[in-house]
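Objective 1b of the project was to move from sequence-level analysis to a structural picture of ligand recognition. The entry below was assembled by the postdoctoral researcher (A.K.) and checked by the PI before modelling. It contains the amino acid sequence of the target and the SMILES of the bound compound, zinc ion.
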Amino acid sequence: MHDIINYFSTIPSSHRALILAGGITFFWILESFKPFKNFKYNKWHHAGINIFFTLTTIIVNFFLAIILLKSAQWTIDNNFGILQWLPKMNNWLYAIVGLLLLDFIGAYLVHLVEHKVKFLWRFHLIHHTDTWIDTTTANRHHPGESVLRFIFTTLGVFIVGSPMWMVFLYQSLSVLATQFNHANIVLPKRLDNILSYIIVSPDMHKVHHHYKLPYTDSNYGNIFSVWDRLFGTYSSLDRDNLVYGVDTHMKEEENNRLKNLLLIPFQKYRSSND
Ligand SMILES: [Zn+2]
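Corresponding predicted holo structure:
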């Protein structure tokens, strides 16, 4: 654990970029061997749009990074946050508790809020308009959503009282987890099912991308599945019955044009037929 702490305390930006690019490449290769769905799409054009949104997410986080750094430092200097108030514990346990809580606030909670608050849904909607879910969908986030997610991550750092190495470790695992659970891959059903008791498996997250409610409003988790199971937001759907997208926005020409996607939050609200 010492080595992990040392590595993530001083992880260079280039390594963080490498984790992100390496993850996309790895899952992209897996997808081309044995895809879950045989999409009739231009994979490069689709990836181009999603990678654009990945880059805007990186830019938002780059400019705000100093706030995150200062917040983590402040919690340690002032002995503030859940981890600081808990009795001294083994490093592994300390990391697991911290990662679980960061995942709860920085992923599960913000995601739940995005689905429940109409104004925020307008921004998150872009992520759900993708009807060809693959590993590049992972960071298809409107810049407005990236800012909101950053705010919740920072809030998480304050509440959890996590040191910076833990934040970097969390962010790296979070990127790989989202690339994994969006990837257009298929695991043996039994394995997927067993995994879904610990982490968010591909089948579990794909249910969240089913085009109709109530499925869209379930399975909000990113790394750990415990939060959905604990708060009753877990749901399952046979993988053969999955239809990706969101029922209010099913037009291909709308969902694959960058300008339109950027403007979606400011367009007239469309309510679901349900
Ligand atoms: Zn969502």
